[in-house]
Amino acid sequence: MPTLPQPEHESIELTQLEKPITARLQLRAITKRYPGVVANDGIDLCVERGQIHAILGENGAGKSTLMKIIYGAVTPDEGSITFDGEPVVIRSPHQARQLGISMVFQHFNLFDSLTVAENIWLGQDKNMSRELLGVHLDEASALFGLNIEPDRPMHTLSVGERQKVEILRSLVTRPKLLILDEPTSVLTPQAVQSLFAVLQRLAQSGCSILYISHKLHEIRQLCDSCTVIRQGKVQGVINPREHSDASLARLMIGVEPPAIPEHVAKPGAMALQVKQLNLPKSHTYGMDLQDINLHVRAGEVVGIAGISGNGQNELLHALSGEDTRASNDSIVLLDQAAGQKNTEQRRREFDLHFVPEERLGRATVPSMSLAHNLLLTRPLSTGPLGWVSPAKLRDKASDLIRRFNVKAAGSHAPARSLSGGNLQKFIMGREMDAAPKIFIVSQPTWGVDVGASAQIRAQMLQLAEQGCAVLVVSEEIEELFELCDRLYVISNGRLSPSLPLEEASIERVGLWMSGLWEGAETAQSHPLPAMATLV
Ligand SMILES: Nc1ncnc2c1ncn2[C@@H]1O[C@H](COP(=O)(O)OP(=O)(O)OP(=O)(O)O)[C@@H](O)[C@H]1O
């Protein structure tokens, strides 16, 4: 009698019984030294197939270095790597991609002058045709629920949108191991949830994921396994769901993060006023600013919430002086019309200091030392004839490094050698130390660990206590709730009325993020931008 064919799943189980499943990735005793610092010190790591494994550690702990080693972008000094049971030496990202390893970096690697599709194509291997890429891109976009026009030039995208392009670029390679370094720093809560759904689906299909984040609730939601690193060494492998925030912070930074001091607003004189600001977009994919009205008094901390791409960039360019097209009296600084003053004039005449969201390339010159990067916004080190005093620069940079707890080899270290969080601490320190009268900051704690976030937020509140008018643009609603006395919400190039914190709730702010505040024109008459359809 002929035997019936076995159902497919039974034969799969048999094969699995015969051949034990090997881990996707196994690192043994990985060590990497940079001048003056051991970034990775004998690290062991095991990631199973289909596992979402978190890497947790304070700023400068060595997480990104370790991920770059796995991706072949950095060569370890010692140690070995096994991938799918085979010992491998990963010499380049190209080789990593051939093995099936893909990485989303913390700092974007995108060319501003190219389009979205061209940027994604550049990251692929040579045999991927433009047509095939188009198919994969449509597939990955649909999976991610993302709708960014492939022909859009990169320079027109907000950081949140750029982050999504970076993620798409990795998804189209259909990886076996996907490494994500702080992927949610600039995503809205809703976009984070869509990303998590994608990651969970990927993991179910067998793809392993290495996930770096400073956001403990995210790690708990997504991962059941987590390797904690401190000062380049593994502290332990834990299930993050069995730990509280306090115990995770203790493992990671050795202590619990300091509590944010109580801030009682004592609003003083008007410091910053925007009156009926109308500004047409400066490029095809920009956002027209329409009838923007806002004010910040000395001593106040005021927030602007919103989904990225709704006019934040345009508003910040107009407020910082990078865009001087506004009518002169639509922006009033310390009682003077200043709409057409440039960045340097606003800094010199009104003590307005600004921290943009892009820390490498805009807030700092990556190849220049920390000391030289001070010159970008601080004239303090130039003498009467305009001579630069290298000694003064060095001293000031060293002072900031010490006071703001920046982990760096010294004032001579190039900006790009710092870990993301440490560079952010340096930039925030550089601007806050200037004792601004008006301080405008975008995403103040992007990529910063829990201890340093608490430190930065406390310092911003201290600035306000000293009479500075602080305006914070952030996509992290919790951060705005923690810091601000009042909130505005930006949607589709329009700004909501001012909302005192006592009257704000996550739900109300969420609704306003879709443009639906009381008295607003309906969303229908102003269709939401593509990104908002995500939520
Ligand atoms: N190219 C480099 N040259 C010199 N030092 C470097 C270089 N890359 C990293 N380092 C140093 O190695 C240490 C670890 O940095 P790494 O970027 O791996 O930290 P991290 O844990 O990812 O931090 P963050 O959370 O801030 O991103 C830091 O002290 C950093 O300054």
TrEMBL record:
Predominant subcellular localization, coarse grouping: membrane
Cellular component GO terms, alphabetical: plasma membrane
SMART domains the record matches: AAA
A GO term, aspect molecular function: ATP hydrolysis activity
Protein name: ABC transporter ATP-binding protein
Compartments in which it is found: Cell membrane
Membrane topology: Peripheral membrane protein
Coiled-coil positions: none
InterPro entries attached to this UniProt entry: AAA+_ATPase, ABC_carbohydrate_import_ATPase, ABC_transporter-like_ATP-bd, ABC_transporter-like_CS, P-loop_NTPase
Domain ABC transporter residue range list: 25-256, 274-517
Species classification: Bacteria, Pseudomonadati, Pseudomonadota, Betaproteobacteria, Burkholderiales
UniProt entry keywords in alphabetical sequence: ATP-binding, Cell inner membrane, Cell membrane, Membrane, Nucleotide-binding, Repeat, Sugar transport, Translocase, Transport
